[in-house]
């Protein structure tokens, strides 16, 4: 699952982004932060695959938050997308998303900065002639195993 942080002061816009992401992508977990200060706390606590941030806040702006993020070891290389209704851009920030947009446009942007095909959550191994015993209502049922899924070794996710 790709963990995405949405940072925006306006609850309606956070909800809209969350709704768009969930409707367009089936492999995301959404975390919300209503302020730059709360976002900084979350940056320190957990790794994100993508950060989507509004441009303006009461106490800061998206560009200042981006620069602060670069000082945090755990998320310093995380793709950072600024959502803006103006066309203005800052040279330090690589990813901008112009509002208004559709869920499909948002999905394409997320997949561009963090391609799900790079992810390998498990290895599939074949075990010919392997058998399993499944208990249903305390009655054993013999079953053949077609494929087994095991956690990938040394899995790292980078986008």
List the helices and strands and how they pair.
Elements: E1 2-7, H1 11-24, E2 28-33, H2 36-45, E3 50-54, H3 62-69, E4 80-84, E5 95-98, H4 103-113, E6 122-125, E7 131-136, E8 139-144, E9 148-151
Parallel strand pairs: 1-2, 1-3, 3-4, 4-5
Antiparallel strand pairs: 6-9, 7-8
Explained architecture:
With 159 residues, this protein is of the alpha/beta class. It has two domains: 2-118, Response regulator (Rossmann fold, 3-Layer(aba) Sandwich), CATH 3.40.50; 123-151, no CATH class. It has four helices and nine strands, in the order βαβαβαββαββββ. It has helices at 11-24, 36-45, 62-69, 103-113; strands spanning 2-7, 28-33, 50-54, 80-84, 95-98, 122-125, 131-136, 139-144, 148-151. A five-stranded parallel sheet has the order 2-1-3-4-5, sandwiched between helices. A two-stranded antiparallel sheet has the order 6-9. The chain has a two-stranded antiparallel sheet with strand order 7-8. α3 (62-69) links the parallel β3 (50-54) and β4 (80-84). It is elongated and about 65 Å long. 20% of the residues are buried.
Which key terms come to mind for this protein?
159 residues; alpha/beta; Rossmann fold; five-stranded parallel β-sheet; two-stranded antiparallel sheet; 27% helix; disordered C terminus
The tally of domains stands at 2
How is the main sheet built? 5 strands, parallel
Query: Total helix count?
Result: 4
What's the CATH first level of the largest domain?
A: Alpha Beta
Helix content: 25-40%
Q: Which runs of at least 5 residues are low in confidence (pLDDT < 50)?
A: 120-124, 150-159
State the secondary-structure class: alpha/beta
Give the integer mean of the pLDDT values. 79
Shape category: elongated
Question: End-to-end distance, in Å?
Answer: 13 Å
- Looking at the structure, the CATH topology of the largest domain is Rossmann fold
Q: Indicate the proportion of strand residues.
A: 25-35%
What is the annotated CATH architecture of the largest domain? 3-Layer(aba) Sandwich
Q: Please state how the strands of the largest beta sheet are arranged side by side.
A: 2-1-3-4-5
Number of strands: 9
* CA radius of gyration: 20 Å
Instruction: Write the element-wise H/E pattern from the N-terminal end onward.
Output: EHEHEHEEHEEEE
CATH superfamily of the largest domain: Response regulator
């Amino acid at each position: 699952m790709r963990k995405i942080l949405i940072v925006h002061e306006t609850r309606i816009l956070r909800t809209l982004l969350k709704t768009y992401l969930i409707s367009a992508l089936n492999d995301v977990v959404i975390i919300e932060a209503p302020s730059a200060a709360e976002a900084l706390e979350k940056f320190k606590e957990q790794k994100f695959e993508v950060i989507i941030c509004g441009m303006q806040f009461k106490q800061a702006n998206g560009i200042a938050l981006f620069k602060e993020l670069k000082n945090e070891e755990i998320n310093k290389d995380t793709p950072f997308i600024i959502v803006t209704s103006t066309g203005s851009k800052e040279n330090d920030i690589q990813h901008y998303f112009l509002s208004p947009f559709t869920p499909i446009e948002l999905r394409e942007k997320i997949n561009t900065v963090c391609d799900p095909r790079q992810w390998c959550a498990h290895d599939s191994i074949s075990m010919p002639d392997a058998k399993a015993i499944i208990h249903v209502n305390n009655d054993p049922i013999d079953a053949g195993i077609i494929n087994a899924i095991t956690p990938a070794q040394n899995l790292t996710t980078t986008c």
